[in-house]
Every structure is written in structure tokens, then in C-alpha cells.
Amino acid sequence: MTKSRLEAFSDGVIAIIITIMVLELKIPHEATLQALSELWPIFLSYLLSFIFVAIYWGNHHHLLHTVHHVTSGIIWSNMGLLFMLSLIPFTTGWMGENHFANTTIAVYSFNLLLAAIAFYILQKTIMAQVSNHSKLVVALKKQEAKGFVSVVLYIIAVVGGLYYPFISGVAIGITTILWLIPDKRIEAALSEERATHQ
Length: 198
Description:
This protein is mainly α. It contains 9 helices and no strands.
């Protein structure tokens, strides 16, 4: 399989995930602001998940740029990530419909935790094919540390969701800020690597 085919398939799945999420926003039957305002939990959960899926798409895009040769390990670890992301519309809808009840926040946080672990596995699989002495590995290892921190924060969010939802919100918020902008060091390392091979 070529890298472009893997990227195209992944982009397609992520686009479908976002489409499924927006379909959960049901049109009110009444033409009043009150009827519209009753949708705020569903809209808020959709907005939160849209941001998360967008962050994964951006970082996934940067990560796949480091791939030189697509292996079966990369294909299946990528499928694992897409599977975890494909569950987000369900956990998002459940959380929004139930107005952020404790159990739904915990399950949603657990979904994000599984996605973070899957991304970490994909990154480790990709790193296995990169030379240990390259600047690209250094950049990927720094991002790997960020991934480990994210896993810890999501564990806190899962436990917090059951007892103190505010803690979940803080942990998820910190993780969002951590990943909002893709790591420029990977881009710089890739540019330098291309320049060396020219």
C-alpha cells in the first residue's frame, strides 16, 4: 500500500466521523430561541468533539509525513486509531443527550484515552522504521512525551468524570491546548532530511 492511499483512506474516515457527529444536531420543531437553547448540551459536546477530531486529523497528517514505507504494522495501528475515533460520535451524542451526566463524561473521557493510546501506538510503530540518529527521531520522541502526558491526563479525566466532572473538564482542556498546534519540530526535521537527500 502507498502512503497516499493510507492518507486518503484516513482522511475519508475522519470526514465521515465529523459528518455523523453533526447529524446528531436535530432541528428544533419550534421556531423559538428557547427551543434552540435546549440544544446547548448537544451543540457543546459536538463542538468539543469537532475540535478533538480536527486536532487528531492535523497531528495524524504530520505524523504520516514521517512515513517512508507503509508496513502492515503501520496499517493496523492506523486502523486502531481510526476505530477509536469512530466511537467519538456515539460517546459525544450520549454525553450531549444526557446533559453531561457523570457516567457519560467518564465514558467520553475513556474514549479519548483509548484514542490517545492508539495514536501513541501508531507513533511508536512509525518510529521503529526511522534511523535512531536522525533529528526526526528526536522530534518524534518529544512528541511521544506529550502523548504520555495526554494519556495520564485522560486517566485523570475518566476518574474525575465519575466523581468530579470539573476535574475532567480541566484535564481535557489542558490536553486540547497541548495538541492544538502540530509540532513544528517534525516539519523542520523533515525539511532538513529532504534537503540532505537532494
